[in-house]
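Dear colleague,

As promised, here are the two records you asked about, laid out in our usual form so they can be pasted straight into your sheet.

NAME FIELD: protein one
SEQUENCE, THEN STRUCTURE:
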Amino acid sequence: MKNLVLTGLFAVCAAAQTPSEPPALIQLIRQPGLEAGLPRPYSEIGAHLTVLAMTAMTGVPETWLLETHDSFASIEGLDQALAPAIRNQLDAMDNQSRFEKEVVAPPRTMIALYRPNWSYRASEAVKLLPKARYFYVTIYTLRSGTEAAFAEAVRRRRANFESVNLDRPELAYPVLSGAPSGTILFLAPLTSLKMMDEALTKSPELAGKVGTEGELSHEHFLLRVEPRLSYVSDEFAETDPLFWRGIAKQQ
């Protein structure tokens, strides 16, 4: 019976395996350290979702896990399936290892909802996900009641991008839970850092800032995709199996 329940739960996650449109929801887990914290044993439970692992190239040392979901039911299914596997890992640790895990700063988890009208060339961004080697992430925090002004600033920014035909698609995700109200993520997958050179060459002000009086703060992060720590399907990895699997592509 338990296996049947898990099968049903992970059927909900299956749509996230092959990127064809932006994930409706993302769950972002930021762990202190470049490989710190207890890993989430996706393979142990046979999870059907895409998880991109990234390490920080700028800012403090962190590992980011970006889980793609199509619904809260998908997040619930993953949570229920992972809980016993994580407990088993903890039980298998000796006392010293458990103490070390407890004193390390815990990860921070956020759930965010896709916002199509704030994104830029979203369909192209999705196609870049299997080819992404870096991510440029901007996190904005807005004052209460200033979303309309921010939306207008984003509209002008998108128009500016289009005016110079900027080839740096990005996806917008306002945070629903796990961060202060008014937190918004912009995720730009990069096939190489040369994409940043183009942005700076075409228009230096396109480095990332939207610019609005309602903004409390913004942060920029440059992240490196780590295939060894990621969890992706064979279909996702097919574009570059050497990168994702360490296997040369069959001709």
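NAME FIELD: protein two
SEQUENCE, THEN STRUCTURE:
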Amino acid sequence: DQCLLNEGCVTGLGERRVVRFGSRMGNLGTAAFDLGAPGAENPYWTLDSCHEAYELEGFAHYELVDAAGQVVLTGAKNGYCVRDSEPWELDVPNVNCYSYDCNGQGITPGCADNYGSELQCQWIDITGVSPGAYTLRVRINASRAIPELDYTNNGVDVSLEIGRGEFVVLLGP
């Protein structure tokens, strides 16, 4: 739809070929990642007139990079509910991961939030991209608009192979 085009989730209208992926972000620091409530009075949030909702504009940035190191395309995810979904270390059950929800957003130290591949804009639009080896680069808070103690762990690169058919094979981090 037009909103997805406006947000940079797709590169055109009509039938699209996309690579869907999940992402998980955690708070590995010692302080809360506190975003507060979405709204006009909160500087982190922007009102998206298309969806009529507050969003973290440009919070997640995606790039598809070819074997020569050239950025082939970019994408983004703006709509978020940053919350405590689960402990970062899944085998550590005693972490209190219930402080933040969609009304008061953030992530408690030691906790994480998940974004499944079924969610809107959890993809890159590869319509028209030539088959070959690529790197999917995902960066969170890349513009550093939200203060953090450490920005060095805000991204991941994943190798992938784009074929001629409908499927794309992720080769791992």
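A couple of things worth noting about protein two: The chain has a mean pLDDT of 88. The longest helix spans residues 2-7.

Best,
R.
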